[in-house]
Amino acid sequence: MDEQTSNSSYQHSTIEEHSSYHRYSTAENTNNNDDDTTPSKRKCPWGKILVATILIGIVTFVIIDSLTTKYISTGFQEFLTWIESNLVAGVFAFMGVYFIATVCFVPGSLLTLGSGFVFGSAVGVGYGVVLASIAVFVGASLGSIAAFLLGRYLMRDCVRRRLVKKYPVIEAIDEALQNNGLKIFLLLRLSPIVPFNAINYIAGVTGISLKDYVIALIGILPGTILYCFIGASAGGLAEAEQEVPQPVTIASIVVGLVLAFIAVFIASRYAKKEFNKIIEQKQNSKAGEGGQNEDDDMIDVEEGLPVDEQNNVETGVDMDN
Question: 261-300 b/e with 16+ CB inside 10 Å = b?
């Protein structure tokens, strides 16, 4: 009886000692991992801060200028006048200016309408609309791709770490855009009421692939052709730079609202499916971790027993009897 009590006490003390050692080792590894990740977390992304500061400064200047001095608008008028007498060089220069305007959040409607008039006056309305549409599409597409890459470089990691990984709803929206971004962004591009410059940077923050984003840019062609045609039909550059006729504005708003609603509906539908998948995966992951923890606990207990006692646990037979 005393020997059995002694063995039991020895077994209990051995298990406690092994469990304490296991907890200490786990805590030490956790601390080491925290020490390893702390420097990377504290590292300041000076490059991103510099780029973001310059971009914010440019956007602030554009907004203030549009409300006060209008230097940018005046510069566009002089630039379009220069294109009239330098058509060949003006086409490539126009693409470059439109590229910069797109990246810097400068509204491109003035350039689009003005290009329709300038190229239409130089080569005729038909060819002028085609030439203006190509120039606008190339410049706007290249600028939107650059803005997309800037948005992804500046904010994608931060948004993914602070929002996407923490909130299942945002993760579901991100997954929906990653898997079905082409359909959603194509509809958004077709809608003239969706801010073109803003959506470029917003897309960079989401999970849509660069390939789908570039293909979806085809959606800006109908609006581009319409605005170039309106500019080509104007009687002068000043008239082309005025507001779009009221019927066209009303029709654009109605069509834009319908397309935007369809895009939001499709995005919500796909996001709901992805949300259900994420919840199901997390539940399965928790269930798997629970089973793994039970197995680890059993192994830890067995490793803390003497050899004879381990055999007893494995075979279910008491060797003392």
Answer: ebbeeebeebbeebbeeeeeeeeeeeeeeeeeeeeeeeee
Which spans in the chain are helix H? 2-42, 46-67, 71-85, 87-103, 109-123, 125-151, 157-159, 168-190, 196-205, 210-216, 221-232, 237-240, 246-303, 307-315
> How far apart, in whole angstroms, are the C-alpha atoms of residue 241 and residue 108?
11
202, amino acid identity: I
Contacts for 83-92: CB closer than 8 Å, 24+ residues apart: 83/115, 83/118, 84/118, 84/121, 84/122, 87/119, 87/122, 87/123, 90/118, 91/119, 91/131, 91/135
Q: What is the pLDDT of residues 226-254, one digit of tens each?
A: 889 888 887 666 555 555 556 656 666 67
pLDDT of residue 258: 76
In tens, the pLDDT along 193-217 reads: 888 888 999 888 888 899 999 999 9
The arithmetic mean of pLDDT across residues 134-138, rounded, is: 95
The mean pLDDT of 26-46, rounded to a whole number, is: 51
Indicate the pTM of the whole model: 0.69
- Please name which of 240, 216, 239 lies closest in space to residue 112, comparing C-alpha atoms: 240
**132 near 120, Cβ under 8 Å?**
yes
Q: Indicate the residue type of 79.
A: F
Instruction: Kindly tell me if the per-residue pLDDT of 317 is higher than 60.
Output: no
Other Cβ atoms closer than 10 A to 148: 23
User: Token digits for 226?
Assistant: 């319409």
CA–CA separation, 48 and 50 (whole Å): 5
CB atoms within 10 A of CB 315: 9
